[in-house]
Design goal:
Length: 105
């Protein structure tokens, strides 16, 4: 991997997870509305730790200024954010599966 290719990947990882989370929040809100019309109550849990919208330009500049040291934190955020995001998936699955099982029984 050369440095530019790595930065390209990091750029899209920063943007895609944030966009995905916003779309997913909209999805769950709409699913909740649809289920409500069918008489099924789904309380969508609030994200306790939503993904921050991070500035690629700022992170790049800070990485250059700190001779790469900020890049360690940057990499940490790229690894941490998906883990936090998927913890929310677990909460949603734990909540929605019993509701759907009870309503279909």
């Amino acid at each position: 991997f050369n440095g530019l290719a790595l930065l390209y990947v990091w750029y899209f990882l920063m943007k895609d997870f944030n966009k995905h989370e916003r779309r997913e929040d909209t999805f769950w809100t709409e699913i909740s509305k649809i289920l409500s019309k069918a008489g099924i109550k789904l309380e969508v849990p609030t994200r306790t730790d939503p993904l921050l919208e991070r500035s690629f330009a700022l992170y790049l500049i800070l990485t250059i200024i700190t001779a790469g040291l900020f890049g360690i934190y940057w990499l940490y955020t790229l690894l941490k954010d998906p883990n936090v995001h998927f913890e929310y998936h677990t909460k949603m699955e734990d909540q929605i599966l019993p509701i759907l099982e009870n309503s279909l029984a």
